Amino acid sequence: MTEVLALESVSRRFGGLQALQDVSLRLHKGEVLGLIGPNGAGKTTLINVITGVHRASGGRVMFQGEDITSRKPYQAARMGLARTFQIVQPFPELNVLDNVASAALFSQSGLTVAGARKAAEGHLEFVGLGSVSDRPAASLTLAMRKRLELAKALAMKPKILFLDEVNAGLNTAEVEQAMTLIRTLAERGLTIVVIEHLMKVVVDTCSRVVVLQNGRLIADGLPHDVVRDPLVVEAYLGQKYAKLAQQFAQGEQR
Ligand SMILES: Nc1ncnc2c1ncn2[C@@H]1O[C@H](COP(=O)(O)OP(=O)(O)OP(=O)(O)O)[C@@H](O)[C@H]1O
């Protein structure tokens, strides 16, 4: 498997807070990696460090063999590291089509406005927003804005797509639709990193899962194994409830 991203002992401090501590991780082409962990574990910070939003306080970020630790966000984006944000942020007055077209124009030099709009149409069809392409982005529902975020990220022709809680705030049917889109992208061979709190999404869509707790990587493996790992259960539930959950599971088996 081709390695596309390697984190080597990546750390990040915010004043006295150690948000990431010696995180080492390798990502291979075509993987759908779930990045999970309790609130405040450092998941978004890790994506921010990879995509140049925050500078690592220590360690290195290697992308396709190149050291990108000090890259700015626009440089990372143009290299093919595209992301969606937890808080969706379209250009509210621009219509849906031009929101996506601007992402294409930003990331690819030499593209004409007409060419960017044409590409944008394709991405909007893919995410199911083809029929609302002329509406102002501000008029979209949350679920639609999340799809718009995805279309914008795809317009940047990503080599790695980072999805930061794309399902937060969505209902069950909307989550199912989002999962279908992620699976389709994975089938096309796109490398994806998914920050997700919904375990069903993690287990059903990810090929591998890593777990952060207090800025440290505490597990790395197949989704079914990782979500049953006692360390991971304890990270989510706390020691007392993890023991209760274990006793409950043992009782169920008898
Ligand atoms: N810009 C910042 N300045 C100061 N502290 C920050 C900053 N960004 C994140 N933090 C802190 O770093 C820690 C990790 O935050 P982060 O947002 O990465 O966690 P997370 O795992 O993504 O959490 P959640 O699941 O709640 O989104 C938290 O304690 C957070 O308060």
UniProtKB/TrEMBL annotation:
Alphabetical keyword list: ATP-binding, Cell membrane, Membrane, Nucleotide-binding, Transport
Entry keyword annotation includes Electron transport: no
GO molecular function: ATP binding
Secretion signal span: none
SMART domains xref list: AAA
Pfam family, one: ABC_tran
Domain ABC transporter: 5-239
The protein's name: Branched-chain amino acid transport system ATP-binding protein
